[in-house]
Amino acid sequence: MHYCRINDIHAGRPLNQKIEIRGWVKTRRDSKDFSFLEINDGSCLANLQVIASSDLKDYADIVLKLHTGCSLLIQGILKESPAKGQEIELHVEQLEVYGWADPARYPLQKKRHSFEFLRSIAHLRPRTNSLGAIARIRSSLSFGVHKFFQEQGFIHVHTPIITTSDCEGAGEMFKVVAPPHTNKEEQNDFFGKPASLTVSGQLQAEVYALSLGKVYTFGPTFRAENSNTSRHLAEFWMVEPEIAFCDLAENMNLAESFLKYLIQYVLDHNEQDMELFANFIDKELHKKLETVLRSSFSHITYTEAISILEKTNKAFEFPVRWGIDLQAEHERYLCENIFANPVFVTDYPKEIKPFYMRLNDDDKTVAAMDLLLPGIGEIIGGSQREERYDFLVSRMKETNLNLDDYDWYLDLRRFGTVPHSGFGLGFERFLQFVTSMNNIRDVIPFPRTPGSALY
After folding, report:
1. Chain segment 95-124, per-residue pLDDT in tens
2. Is residue 416 located within the same domain as residue 338?
3. How confident is the model over 24-51, as pLDDT tens digits?
């Protein structure tokens, strides 16, 4: 007898063998001589039907008292099922209860719960079909991220969570303050200078790219932005490759290949979980993803995008003019109504982009790119970095940065500078796209948002 996960049972079907499973009761229904238990252990979307005969020891005292949420160890024989809609079932020989779940208090029942309600019980929501599927897809895609970059010869670098550099220059950073000492009112010089939680690992990734050639980071980032929307979190995960000897065009090619790779990866490795979202969340999900896979992404400049938007008859909530930062409504209109296709928008005004982006010859725009996807808007943002020392210093002064704080960053331009580029993929937004989940809080295990940091 051996312990089996339910996904392995469905894949291998070791019929007429004695096996052991461990999991949670989804449902129980009784007939005259049997109880039918649906058991799930989290390894896959599918449950395993378990047949508990009434002649089992303690049948009345244990089996007939089982309810949704109880955890069990079950030993029995796996057999072909005579019932329609399933191929196998486990016939119980021995059953042990690990933990009971009081049906009067257990909040998950055999019905559809709203995602808003499930957010209030984030410690139990992974037991639902939808959030369990999200967890498996997230895990699979995390592995897919590493697999893509490892196959491409990238080196994984762990960049710091605590930083003294503001990558974006927007000031939306959580400050890190040590506990007060007994002889001071406040202890905020633990690191010798003000420190914050990182908004990006990019600057540190550049250090390693300009030594190792091709690197990537994949970790948590933080933004103290008081935004309660379905697209924003205070803590989120970013994938950030950085490549030496790489211009903006090569950078966009990598971004397109990366996005398509991940979409194909999830379709190949999470078929059953993806079907749940195609059936219950978005009937057009597979069509949407296949369209992206087949597409050659469109390319337009920011100036062209503004011109297109100004000529439309649509009344946008945010008025369109050259120099604004494109809003989600503008981004979605471009890729959904104008191109019906993923779109790269390039060459943004320098005033709305960070200091490190390479200045174009027009002295007005920078070599930036955003990738826009239907239904979500911006999914990837990147740029060619400013490798020219004098230009970088000028931009830093324009944005009122203290050059002394970034002297190490300027060293990268003093000593063997090269053209280099990179981008960032918001992992949760990508998960939203591949599942069509409406709210970003439902694709991360424990969402951190303004006013909410439970668990």
Report:
1. 999 999 999 999 998 888 999 999 999 999
2. yes
3. 999 999 999 999 999 999 999 999 999 9
Evaluate the CA torsion angle 339, 343, 347, 353 in order and state its sign.
positive
Residue 181 — pLDDT band, cuts 50, 70, 90?
low
Q: Smallest Cα–Cα separation from 405: which of 234, 237, 210, 196?
A: 196
b/e string for 391-418 if b means 16 or more Cβ within 10 A? ebbebbeeeebeeeebeebbebbeeebe
In a domain, 448, yes or no: no
Start-to-end CA span in the chain (Å):
38
Q: For residues 229, 230, 233 and 237, what is the CA-based torsion angle, rounded to 10 degrees?
A: -150
Task: Report CA-CA distances (Å) from 315 to 301, 328, 331, 336, 435.
Answer: 22, 14, 14, 16, 29
Q: Tell me what pLDDT residue 83 has.
A: 78
Phi, psi (deg, nearest 5) at residue 55: -90, 5
Helix (H) or strand (E) holding 256, with range, is helix 248-269
Strands 48-53 and 2-3, by their bridges, are: unpaired
Using alpha carbons, select from 212, 105, 225, 217 the residue that is nearest to residue 156.
Answer: 217
pTM score, two decimals?
A: 0.95
Which residue from 23, 31, 29 is spatially nearest to 3, judged by alpha carbons?
23
In contact, 300 and 344? CB cutoff 8 Å = yes
Helix-strand-coil split of the chain, %, nearest 5: 35, 25, 40
- Look at residues 110, 135, 157 and tell me which one is the last residue of a structural domain: 110
Q: Which of 81, 110, 139 is the last residue of a domain?
A: 110
Closest residue by Cα to residue 50 from 9, 12, 109: 9
Least confident of 1-15, 24-38, 171-185, 235-249: 171-185
DSSP string, 378-408: EEEEEEEB---HHHHHHHHHHTT--GGGGHH
Confidence of residue 170 (pLDDT cuts 50, 70, 90): low
Structure tokens at 122: 């984030």
The single-letter DSSP state of residue 356 is: T
Instruction: Indicate the helix (H) or strand (E) that contains 25.
Output: strand 18-30
Residue 405 phi, psi dihedral angles, 5° rounding: -70, -20
SS3 277: helix
Structure tokens at 202: 């990019």
Residues 241 and 351 reside in one and the same domain: yes
- pLDDT tens-place string over residues 213-247: 999 999 999 999 888 888 889 999 999 999 999 99
Among 380, 443, 374, 438, residue whose Cα is nearest residue 236: 443
Q: Is residue 447 part of a domain?
A: no
Percent of the chain with pLDDT over 90: 85
Domain with 62, as residue range(s), is: 2-110
pLDDT attached to residue 106: 96
Are 166 and 134 contained in the same domain?
A: yes
